[in-house]
C-alpha cells in the first residue's frame, strides 16, 4: 500500500460512522453503495468536507425508502436524474443510481440517461481519472480502474478514456480541467492539453450559466493564475472570456509600456493577498474578477504618440462597458455586473490624488462615487501598483495610506457612509412650496453638491442656502 493510500485509509476512519451506517443499511437491503468522485479524491488529499457523493445500484424510489427514518432531512430535487439528497446531522449526502449516458454531439446535455448496472460502468463516464475512484461500503474496498490514486500522488489530470471522447461528450470538462489545475495545483496531462487546444471551439455549445459557474470557481480557487493561463494558452478563453487573451495583443516589442496581460494577473495575485481586509466571506469573486479584467479597455484605447509615448485614455470607462457586456453574456446577476463595472470605472480615480492635493470635497466625492464598493476599491487600487521601482511603489502606498486615513477622519466627523444633503425631499417641498417633480430633484442635487463641497451645514444654514439658490434661479 502506497503512502497516499495509507493516508486515505486513515482519513476514511474519520467519516466511518456516517458512511458505514449508510453502507450497512443498503447492504442489508441487498443493494450496493459506494463513496465516489471528488470526496474520494479529497480524502487522499486530506481535504475534508461535509459534502459526500455516493453511487448505488438502488433506484431513486428505493433510496428514498432506505433513507427514511435514518436521515435528518430528505429532498428529491434531482430525482429525475437519479439523485436523492439528504442531511444526516452535519453531513450533506447525494446518492445517485448507477448511470450510463449518451450525448448529443451538438449539446452538452445527455441525450439519454439510463440506469447502469455496475459501479465500474458508472465510474467510466466520469470526467477525470482522479474523480473516477470509489470506496465500496461498508467494506472500505477501494475501486480505482483508471489509476486515479497514482494521478493524485503525481498531481496529474488525465481522463478515464481518451480526452477527445471525454470532451466531446461534455465540453465543460475542458474548463473543469483548468479549474482543477487552479484549485489543486495539478498539471494536465499533455494529451489533455492537446485535446483542449484542438477542441476549444466546442465550448460554445455549453450554456452561458454553466461556463459562468466554472469561471467563478476558477477565479475563486487558490491559484487562479494557473487555470487562467491554461484557458488562454489552449484558446478556450477566446470563447469564454475573449477580453483576457486580447491583452496579449498589447505586447510591445519596444517596451514602451508594461505587459498588460502579465500585469493583470499580478494585480489579481496582489488583490488576493489583500482581500482579507474585506468584511465579507472570502474568496471574494467581485474584487478578484474586477482585478483580473480592470484593464480590458486598453486594447481599444491604445494610441502611440511619437516613438516613446503610448496612451490609454479613458480605458477605465471603456473597460467598464466591456465588462458589463461580457458579464451580461455570461448571465451574471445585475448586482455583480454593477459592482465589477463600478470598480473598473473608478480604478484610476486615485491617481489624481498626488501627494494629498485633493480637497475634502474631492475625498467626499470619492467616497460617494464608490458607495458600497469603497473597501473593494481600496484593494483594487492598491493591487494595481505593480511597479518594480521601490521608491515609486512606496510613494503610491504612502499616498493611499494618507487617503484612507483622511476618509476615516471625515467618516468620524461627518458620517460619510450615510452621505446625503442636510434637507430631504419633503423638507425641500415644504420650504419652497412646490409639489413633487423635476424642481425638487434639482434642489436636492444642489444641496448634495453643497454637502460634498462644504461638509455638514445643519438644517438652518442649508435652508438659507436653498432659498438663496431658489431666489437666484427664479
Your description of this structure?
The protein is of the alpha+beta class and 474 residues long. 53% of the residues lie in helices and 11% in strands. A seven-stranded mixed β-sheet has the order 3-4-5-2-1-8-9. It has a two-stranded antiparallel sheet with strand order 6-7. Strands 10-11 form a two-stranded parallel sheet. Strand 8 (134-137) and strand 9 (141-143) form a beta hairpin.
Strand order of the largest sheet: 3-4-5-2-1-8-9
Biggest sheet record:
7 strands, mixed
* Number of helical regions: 22
Strand content: 5-15%
Measured as a percent range, the helix fraction is: 40-55%
> Termini separation (Å)?
91 Å
Mean pLDDT: 90
Number of separate strands: 13
Rg to the nearest angstrom?
29 Å
Low-confidence stretches: none
- Shape type: elongated
Structural class of the secondary elements?
alpha+beta
In terms of topology, how is this protein built?
Elements: H1 3-28, E1 33-36, H2 38-44, E2 51-56, H3 60-67, E3 73-75, E4 83-88, E5 91-97, E6 99-103, E7 110-115, H4 119-124, E8 134-137, E9 141-143, H5 148-154, E10 156-157, H6 163-169, H7 172-184, E11 187-188, H8 190-198, H9 208-219, H10 224-234, H11 237-240, H12 260-274, H13 285-293, H14 298-301, E12 303-305, E13 309-311, H15 315-329, H16 334-346, H17 360-370, H18 374-383, H19 390-414, H20 425-432, H21 438-454, H22 459-473
Parallel strand pairs: 2-5, 10-11
Antiparallel strand pairs: 1-2, 1-8, 3-4, 4-5, 6-7, 8-9, 12-13
Helix pairs in contact: 7-9, 7-10, 12-13, 12-18, 13-16, 13-18, 15-16, 17-19, 17-21
